[in-house]
Amino acid sequence: MIIKQDYPQLSWEVLCRLFGKTRHAHYDHLWRAQNDSLKEDVILQLVYETRDSLPRLGTRKMIHMLAPRLKSHGIVVGRDYLFDLLGVHKLLIRQRKKKAYTTDSRHWMHKYNNLVKDLPVARPEQVWVSDMTYIRVMNQWGYLSLITDAFSRKIMGYCFRDDMLAQGCLEALQMALNNRIYHDRLLIHHSDRGSQYCSKDYVNVLLFHGVQISMTQNGDPYENALAERMNGIIKEEFNLYSSSLNFEQTRQKIEKSIKTYNEVRPHGSCDYLTPSQAHTQQHALKRRWKSYQRKWQKENPVVKAV
């Protein structure tokens, strides 16, 4: 290999000719390499800044959020480029395994029929989905109850407690009812058949507010898939599978995470609007996500393409 330092008497022009290149092509290569390095630095800096508030935000939503800021730097990148860049820097999201169970449907209380199966959801506050999930807090368990609007994906109500009693679900429900905007519209509340949602107090609150009650029928999680998905988003993207904080600090972190989810995070099922923005829409929202299978995903099956 010819190195310029070994032959100081040779000019760059002569060396470039030996390789069949012009001197301008050599410098152009150096300038492009420098520009590419600067471009990567800018992108990675913006990625790190975004993940301060959205620590597990997927790559497709990331590129949507960063596009205006990158444009201000004169940078335009595609989805595959960002996937490859984050892959090189070990910044792709890794999927976690579960699971523990928070549903006990083996009880004597009345169970309701599934009213939302095959029901098209066309407006906000048409269907709410509800579920409870667990979070490890130091040396104890905490239980998070969520109520989500099926159209906008907005978390309408939540409660975090250190027990699985119906009181937590009731507090989440009351918050959701207080946050309603369209009070004159028919609303269906859908949940699993857990004892918390079948309890007399919970059912009475729904009936008092004229809310129809719907429940899963066969214990199949796909019958309440949206609520299950919401649990995963909050826990995965905001690092809430476990917490090294105390219970009150964890509760504050959950509150901040839900606010960020509702008001900052774009949602692929809502035309990349935030849930709060989507909740004000009165027309069908375009779904922006697809099921992709990429080469790097086949080679790294534990990496989640999001």
UniProtKB/TrEMBL annotation:
Protein name per Swiss-Prot or TrEMBL: IS3 family transposase
Domain Integrase catalytic stretches: 120-283
InterPro entries for the chain: Integrase_cat-core, RNaseH-like_sf, RNaseH_sf, Transpos_IS3, Transposase_IS3/IS150/IS904
Highest rank taxon of the organism: Bacteria
Stored SUPFAM superfamilies: Ribonuclease H-like
